[in-house]
Design a protein that fits this description.
The chain is α/β, with parallel strands linked by helices and about 325 residues long. It has 3 domains: about 1-90, Winged helix-like DNA-binding domain superfamily/Winged helix DNA-binding domain (Arc Repressor Mutant, subunit A); about 100-170 and about 275-300, D-Maltodextrin-Binding Protein, domain 2 (3-Layer(aba) Sandwich), CATH 3.40.190.10; about 175-270, Periplasmic binding protein-like II (D-Maltodextrin-Binding Protein, domain 2). About 40% of the residues lie in helices and about 20% in strands. It is built from 11 helices and 12 strands. It has helices at about 1-5, 10-20, 25-30, 35-50, 65-90, 105-125, 140-145, 190-195, 210-220, 230-240, 290-300; strands at about 55-60, 60-65, 100-105, 130-135, 150-155, 165-170, 175-180, 200, 225-230, 245-250, 260, 275-280. The strands form 4 sheets. The chain has a 5-stranded mixed beta sheet. The chain is elongated.
Length: about 325
């Protein structure tokens, strides 16, 4: 029986279930939309597979054996998950979806894009309940446990293979500091900026040094990091009221008109912009909800134009 089971057509299990339920091959054929001959052939294959007279013919139908009834129960339990998945695909209506959706973002991305992203998601899923939270060390385990639906992060930080990731957009970088900065208005070479205080966004991904700190170190310069904070207002205040600098984007200028962008010191092209990626569980690829989230978030980033960088001389 083992070899026969390996080649068993799942449609035969469905046929078996319907024959047990109806106890009539004609009604089974009508319900399944097949000929009565096909029903008879299917029953013959089931008999060959299970080696049992599964049904006894009666005057007005068939009588299932004990094995047939037990197999019908097992078939229902086996096919039910398939049916549920297919029903979910066929019946998914974004405008009526009322479930919870959790989006975890790297903190700076949540600061910059959170509101616009929420508006786009709310338009696509008007009745859904959203949680837009920042990515924390424990978030990876929460995502693998299917408690986070989607993650936004910088592509430089690798996620495990269980999470399918895709590129969404790039953010161009500059040195950001106060307008008319006494040094940057003339030059931003490494030696000119080596002693200037540095302001950084805190990141739960970063180790002691990030790739930009390492650029200073390769120049023989110990980065003079004077402030690390999750708070954009604190970072902006520090930049506006001191000569501190930040490797950042022109998005930061939207928080204060006294800030300006200046050219980066010489560095590899790949570090002059940050790549943004989105991701969700590999096991959810193809699910209607995840497809919609992916498309909505991709459309959101496709529609964004980064603010003019206002580079100073």
């Amino acid at each position: 029986m083992k070899n026969n089971l390996e080649q068993l057509d799942l449609n035969l299990l469905r046929l078996l279930k319907v024959v047990v339920d109806t106890r009539n091959t004609s009604v089974t054929a009508e319900r399944l939309g097949i000929s009565q001959t096909s029903v008879s052939r299917g029953l013959a294959k089931l008999r060959d597979t299970f080696g049992d007279q599964l049904f006894i013919r009666k005057a007005h139908g068939v009588e299932p054996s004990e094995l047939a009834e037990k197999l019908a129960v097992a078939a229902e339990q086996m096919l039910s998950p398939f049916t549920q998945v297919l029903d979910a695909y066929q019946s998914f209506d974004a405008t009526k979806y009322q479930g919870d959706i959790v989006i975890a973002c790297e903190l700076t991305l949540l600061d910059i894009f959170g509101n616009g992203l929420y508006q786009s998601l709310r338009q696509a899923l008007p009745q859904a309940k959203f949680k837009l939270v920042y990515w924390q060390p424990q978030s990876l385990q929460a995502m693998l446990a299917r408690n986070i639906d989607y993650v936004l992060h910088y592509s430089m930080y690798n996620l495990p293979q269980e999470i399918y990731t895709h590129h969404l957009s790039n953010i161009a970088l500059n040195l950001v500091a106060r307008k008319n900065h006494p040094i940057l208005k003339t030059t931003s070479d490494w030696q000119a900026i080596k002693d200037i205080a540095i302001v950084k966004h805190a990141s739960d991904y970063s180790a002691k040094y990030d790739v930009y700190d390492e650029l200073f170190i390769t120049q023989g310069i110990e980065p003079n990091i004077s402030l690390v904070s999750h708070s954009v207002p604190i970072i902006v205040d520090k930049l506006v009221h001191s000569d501190a600098i930040s490797i950042n984007s022109s998005y930061l200028l939207k928080n204060n008109q006294q800030l300006a962008c200046y050219p980066l010191p010489p560095m590899p092209e790949r570090l002059k912009a940050l790549s943004i990626s989105g991701g969700y569980l590999q096991s959810r690829r193809g699910y209607p909800l995840n497809q919609l989230l992916h498309q909505t978030i991709q459309d959101f980033f496709n529609a964004i134009t980064q603010p003019v960088q206002q580079k100073q001389p």
